[in-house]
Amino acid sequence: MKENHKPTISTVAKINNTEITIIKNGEKRIPIKPICTALGIDFSAQLQRLKRDEFLNSTVVTITTVGGDQKQREMATIPFKFVFGWLFRIDARKVKPEAQESVMKYQMECYDALYRHFTELEEYMEDRTKLVEQKMDVIEEARNGYKDASKRLDAAKRAFAEARSMTLDSWRESKSQLKLDFSKAENLEEGGDNA
């Protein structure tokens, strides 16, 4: 047995002090007349445009709901998800003068959103390529540093191995060798010639 749910109505925005409501009855729908009234555009003309639109015509549904005056009214509605596209197509020159700036600002936001949507993949690919190239440079630097460090490590390991292999005899042998610094001797001879 199906339950009859009473639709819920909530305010989602205010346009020129007119509350724009959303009707939830399984699907979110927006009455179009209050928006037309708030913008100062002809409701009948907008309803006809919606009905002629090949995408929106099948989405226009009349719903009986309680109006702002608490009386039951039949309201032409469209799904909430289509309201933004419908508003985008309204000619800003035909709305109330006090609403024109807001409509034009909204439409510019739509242009920006469309641009971002359709160029996002390209921008992502460019940013990703730059980032990959930067990280590859870091890897190459680290690889070169690793090669140098590897050589120094090998030399240090050899010196360490030599130190560990030193015996008492080899130590004595290296200590007993006479170490002469000939560069000092040459300096002394040169100084003696000048005297």
Report on the architecture of this protein:
- This protein is α+β, with helices and mostly antiparallel strands.
- The chain has helices at 33-39, 43-52, 80-88, 97-165, 168-176, 182-194; strands at residues 8-15, 18-24, 28-31, 61-66, 72-79.
- It contains six helices and five strands; from the N terminus they run E-E-E-H-H-E-E-H-H-H-H.
- The protein has a five-stranded antiparallel beta sheet with strand order 1-2-3-5-4.
- The longest helix has 69 residues, at 97-165.
- The protein is rod-shaped, with a radius of gyration of 42 Å.
- The mean pLDDT is 81.
Brief summary of the model shown:
The protein has 195 residues and is of the alpha+beta class. 60% of the residues lie in helices and 17% in strands.
User: What's the arrangement of strands in the largest beta sheet?
Assistant: 1-2-3-5-4
Return residue spans where pLDDT drops below 50 for at least 5 consecutive residues. none
In terms of DSSP E residues, the strand content is: 15-25%
Question: In angstroms, what is the radius of gyration?
Answer: 42 Å
Q: How does the overall form come out from the CA principal axes? A: rod-shaped
User: How much helix, percentage-wise, in residues?
Assistant: 55-70%
Q: What is the number of helices?
A: 6
Number of strands: 5
H/E series: EEEHHEEHHHH
Largest sheet entry: 5 strands, antiparallel
**Cα distance, first to last residue?**
126 Å
- The chain-level structural class is alpha+beta
| Mean pLDDT reading | 81
